[in-house]
Specification:
Elements: E1 3-7, H1 14-25, E2 29-31, H2 32-40, H3 44-50, H4 52-67, E3 73-75, H5 84-91, E4 94-100, H6 103-109, H7 123-139, E5 142-145, H8 150-161
Length: 162
């Protein structure tokens, strides 16, 4: 059974939706960021303090680990698409869903101070969206526009995989 991989910007609902999908489909769930922190016994901000490259290398190793699993619901970090090798390895045993949520909605829900890439402020999120949107579209098997409720996004994904 293939993994269900959720990609998209930070704050687009990947973590919350992955937990709901896991309940609904009775499948295990893994959050790559949590897995990464556990595996390396460091927080993501600590890894970024060393360098973004340091973080991205470890993120790729975790993607390789998770791609070996079967039937998981996988929540990825927002920048997972920066390394196309991550997408290749995740796609080898997974179906990729891009959760596309308007930046304005994301900004209403997230704590910018807890996000290493947003130290510069909310404008950075708009720039990141512009930089990454096409990469998400190229990487995904299905594009889910998440501009209403998580329940709606959940129903869309379930209708596709069943």
């Amino acid at each position: 059974m293939k993994n269900i991989i959720l990609i998209g910007m930070m704050g687009c609902g990947k973590t919350t939706l992955s937990k709901e999908l896991a309940k609904e489909l009775n499948r295990p769930v893994v959050d790559i960021d949590e897995y990464l922190e556990e595996k390396y016994q460091m927080t993501i901000p600590e890894m970024f303090d060393i360098s973004e490259d340091y973080f991205r290398e470890r993120e790729h190793i975790c993607c390789q680990d998770i791609a070996k699993c079967d039937g998981y619901i996988v929540s990825t970090g927002g920048g997972v698409i920066k390394n196309l090798k991550n997408i290749d390895v995740l796609k080898s045993n997974g179906i990729i869903f891009y959760l596309d949520r308007p930046v304005e909605n994301i900004l209403q829900d997230i704590d910018i101070s807890s996000r290493p890439l947003l130290k510069e402020g909310s404008e950075k999120l708009y720039r990141l969206y512009q930089e990454r949107h096409d990469l998400y579209l190229q990487a995904c098997d299905y594009h889910i526009y998440n501009d209403s409720s998580l329940e709606n996004a959940l129903k869309q994904i379930i209708s596709i995989i069943k």
